[in-house]
Amino acid sequence: MSLEWKNNIIYLTFDDGPTPEVTPWVLSLLNKYQSKATFFCLGKNAELYPDIIYQIKKNGHSIGIHGYEHLNGWKTCKKRYLENIHKASQVLPSEIFRPPYGKITPWQWLSLKKQYRIIWWTYLSKDYSSKKNKWYLFKKLLNHSHHQSIIVFHDTPKAFPFLNNYFEQYLQWLNENDFTCLPIK
């Protein structure tokens, strides 16, 4: 895995996009704070919004595969799951893959690890949750942000209420605490 191991490195990742409602907004904030991220995109969304994929790459971020559709590996047969990833790779040429929901069977993993680096995370922000207090989620995010952390956000409308309230504040906090945000390559 080609993660850089320096002091105060953090890896911000975004799953499920791109979406025109949220991804450009995220890109503008990342640019404002000179931060890089990794976008684990759905192939079907990449087909719909190739201009956003272009912007992600142009701005120096990396792109990973999150499937063509957002399939749960535990509930999907191996053949269909692998076909879904292959279809996504036709739209999103990448060597990195993150399983949707973080759920993948051992057989799926064994097949995919031959072609992809499977990227997990150290903390899931739960930015999509409508049931949890947003301030509580933000405080937990700060507590779980350490050197070499891989943090999961979502560049989707469902996650936007959290992102809109706290993502810029989080980027400010990272800068104040001398973190460097790098893409996973």
Task: Write a brief caption for the model.
The protein is an alpha/beta fold and 185 residues long. It is built from seven helices and eight strands.
Q: What's the number of domains?
A: 1
Biggest sheet, open or closed, and with what strands and sense? 6 strands, parallel
Overall geometric form: globular
Q: How confident is the prediction overall: mean pLDDT? A: 95
Secondary-structure element sequence?
EHEHHEHEHEEHEHE
| Text of the CATH class | Alpha Beta
Strands, helices and their partners?
Layout: E1 9-15, H1 23-32, E2 37-41, H2 43-48, H3 50-58, E3 62-65, H4 78-91, E4 96-97, H5 106-112, E5 117-118, E6 123-124, H6 134-143, E7 150-154, H7 160-176, E8 180-181
Parallel strand pairs: 1-2, 1-7, 1-8, 2-3, 4-5, 6-7
Helix pairs in contact: 6-7
Description:
This protein has helices spanning 23-32, 43-48, 50-58, 78-91, 106-112, 134-143, 160-176; strands spanning 9-15, 37-41, 62-65, 96-97, 117-118, 123-124, 150-154, 180-181. It is α/β, with parallel strands linked by helices and 185 residues long. The protein has one domain (9-181): Glycoside hydrolase/deacetylase (TIM Barrel), CATH 3.20.20.370. The strands form two sheets. Strands 1, 2, 3, 6, 7 and 8 form a six-stranded parallel sheet that branches. A two-stranded parallel sheet has the order 4-5. The longest helix has 17 residues, at 160-176.
